[in-house]
Design a protein that fits this description.
The protein is α+β, with helices and mostly antiparallel strands. Helices cover 61% and strands 15% of the residues. A hairpin with a 5-residue loop joins strand 3 and strand 4.
């Protein structure tokens, strides 16, 4: 087949073969460009989409601006893949870059634990998976593109006749909220008979089809349910992750304070041992001078030995607790921990809300603000929708469809007249004859709805019990702390009085020994009571969903705290008016 010489005034449609080749090259090039992403680039694109969804939900639900991210693969593979500036605290310790960690407080411990905790990473990955699932559902309800290219040759074994062909096709599909499915496709095919030496001939095609269900499976309730459920599942995951962060912060605080309690008890016993040593030396000298009986000297020596033994036991327990704490933080047990001074002294032990808070107000507030209660309620709504969808599947199916397509004549690439277009229309009816599988699915959905409602109601009872118990513990531990605080003051006064009386000869050694023992015990009890009240108070704020966690540490939401005060005052005023 001859070819006309190039004419600069000729239009592109005058050369269908060249145009088809050009279109084929462009479309195949676009397809290859889309398919040439490296795994690392695809990971980055997946992370970008998932992180954007998570950050948007966290901003919407909690006004949280800190970006969410998973550890990069280089972080997961270890310090060898990264520069020293990017190493975690654990990696620096293992590499010998640092030998100790500190000064450590609750905020620092929380950051180190979050870096290495498998539990934290598992929660983060669960949240990421929920966002990844949503990106898939969003893709399914967007424009879906597909393209393919092919080529081949065939012929007779004797070589007398052979043909070669190549083709390209592309399509775009969209699912609408009504359940309609729209499909548009284009295609191009080129072929030639090899034995004749002729050039390539080609045909192209266009097609459009629409299918719309009218009874079963129509409407946004059914069609958009996968997308809707994925969006809600991400909300649940964001809530669960935030609840986990707050619970985990209380857990870390508990461990930090317990270690501090052991260190404080060790320090108290050390001071007690020093005082007993001083007393023992004094009594021995007085006994040698004949001014004190050997019995009193032996009493001081015996108490000193008892204190030394307690010191050894406490030292071992403290070291064991420190090792356990290091493992919890993900640090090697060989590293040294240095704690910030005055952690226990800075614990807040006053709460005007606690003193005035009513049980009924606390329960109502918790039910209104607890993240897990919100999710439990929303799951009831999910079950309602799923039951409605399962019931919808029992109806008859009716759908209408329409399609139109045209294929160009051989050698008439892209020359569509549409006079020869082929169209079709149809109606499909799915009669509800054998409904047993659908019937069973609907009954399961009904039972799931009943069970989900029951779980929600039980969650309200559980929250009521847990809030009342947390409030009771906080009140009791506050009273206990006040009692122990007074006991310390009394013990200190008793020691001073015993020392003065002993010097004046109005008391015996046993009086001072008992007073010092009482002081040590009171100090230990006061520290334990202070820590217990602090942790019980954190537990109460957690039960009421007042607790917040950010880079600065653990704190109470000021706006919600003020709202709780306002509700308490209003309820107290209403109660007094009724009286």
């Amino acid at each position: 087949m001859g070819r006309a010489p190039f004419d600069s005034h000729a239009t592109l449609l005058s050369y269908p073969l060249q145009h088809a080749r050009l279109a084929l090259i462009i479309m195949v090039g676009a397809l290859l460009a889309q398919s040439c992403y490296t795994p690392a680039e695809l990971r980055d694109r997946a992370d970008r989409d998932a992180y954007a969804l998570i950050d948007a939900r966290r901003k919407q639900l909690f006004d949280e601006d800190s970006p969410f991210s998973l550890p990069s693969p280089t972080q997961a593979f270890g310090r060898e893949a990264r520069s020293a500036e990017d190493w975690t605290v654990r990696e620096k310790v293992l590499a010998g870059a640092v030998t100790g960690v500190g000064p450590l407080n609750v905020v620092g411990a929380l950051g180190i634990a979050a870096e290495n905790s498998e539990l934290v990473q598992r929660e983060q990955e669960g949240l990421y998976r929920a966002a990844l699932d949503l990106t898939l559902e969003q893709w399914r309800f967007g424009y879906q593109y597909d393209a393919s290219a092919s080529g081949g040759a065939s012929g007779e074994i004797n070589g007398n006749l052979g043909t070669a062909s190549k083709g390209f096709s592309a399509s775009v599909t969209r699912v609408l909220g009504t359940g309609a499915v729209i499909l548009a496709d284009v295609g191009a095919s080129l072929f030639r008979v090899v034995s004749t030496g002729d050039g390539w001939d080609g045909i192209t095609s266009l097609g459009l089809s629409i299918t719309q269900p009218l009874l079963k499976g129509t409407g946004e309730l059914v069609t958009l349910e996968p997308l809707r459920q994925s969006e809600r599942t991400l909300v649940y995951a964001v809530r669960a992750y935030e609840r986990f962060r707050r619970t985990y912060a209380v857990n870390v605080s508990d461990r930090v304070y317990r270690v501090q309690q052991s260190l404080d008890q060790l320090n108290n016993e050390r001071l007690n041992f020093e005082n007993l040593t001083t007393l023992r030396v004094r009594n021995e000298r007085l006994a040698e001078a004949g001014e004190l009986s050997e019995v009193q000297a032996d009493q001081a020596r015996q108490d000193e030995l008892g204190s030394e033994n307690r010191l050894v036991v406490l030292q071992g327990n403290t070291e064991r607790q420190l090792d356990t704490f290091k493992v919890f933080l993900g640090l090697p047990v060989e590293c040294d921990l240095f704690f910030e001074e005055g952690i226990l002294r800075r614990l807040g032990v006053e709460s005007d809300v606690l003193n005035q808070l009513r049980d009924d107000v606390a329960v109502e507030f918790a039910i209104a603000h607890r993240l897990d209660v919100m999710t439990s309620f929303d799951r009831v709504q999910d079950a309602v929708r799923k039951e409605a969808i399962a019931r919808d599947a029992l109806r008859a199916g009716l759908s209408v469809s329409a399609a139109a397509s045209e294929v160009t004549a051989e050698g008439k690439v892209l020359q569509y007249s549409f006079n020869d277009a082929i169209w079709s229309a149809g109606v499909d009816v799915d009669l509800p004859i054998d409904l047993l599988p659908l019937r069973n699915a609907w009954r399961r959905a009904e039972l799931t709805l009943v069970d989900t409602r029951r779980r929600y109601e039980r969650s309200l009872d559980d929250v009521t019990v847990s809030v009342r118990d947390a409030l009771r513990r906080a009140r009791n531990s506050f009273k206990s702390f006040k009692i122990q605080e007074g006991a310390v003051l009394l013990s200190e006064r008793r020691v001073r009085g015993a020392e003065l009386s002993l010097e004046a000869g109005e008391a015996i050694t046993r009086d001072l020994l008992e007073a010092q023992s009482s002081l040590r015990s009171s100090r230990d009890s006061a520290t334990a009571a202070r820590i217990a009240f602090t942790l019980d108070l954190l537990g109460l704020w957690l039960e009421l969903e007042l607790l917040r966690v950010d880079e600065s540490g653990v704190f109470v939401d000021p706006d919600l705290s003020e709202d709780l005060r306002t509700r308490t005052r209003e309820r107290a005023t209403a109660a007094s008016d009724l009286q």
